[in-house]
Amino acid sequence: LKNKVKDFFVRSVQNRDERGFCITQDVMAALLDKWSLFVVYNLGYYGTLRFSELKTKIKSISGRMLSVTLKKLEAHGLISRRVYPEVPPRVEYQLTDFGQALAGRTIELNAWLLDHYYPTTQTPAPSPVASKKSPPEKP
Description:
Elements: H1 2-19, H2 23-31, H3 36-46, E1 49-50, H4 51-57, H5 63-75, E2 79-84, E3 90-95, H6 97-116, H7 128-131
């Protein structure tokens, strides 16, 4: 693992010096925030979606946070935004080729986590169904 980390850091520094950005700070951090993966996975599953459709599918996101997340993902080349010259304007979002490839990799990571991650610092909460006491039986 030490050699992999070292190789990554060397490549990352070279990339930063040659292209002017850090892949970890500028791309991965943007993808791994609270809402980005929800947007990416919804676009990956449904294809092209409008703002209101994304807002409906991601129930607890605010309109402002969705707007900020979409702008960030577009700026990083993960999604594309298409505006149609209509009244009212119609705007659609979809994953770029890069966004599709990166989403596939994150799904692989999530699948691995489902199979291997067992929190050791927290005890799972008891099931509400299992913890309910049955009412006493009537004679």
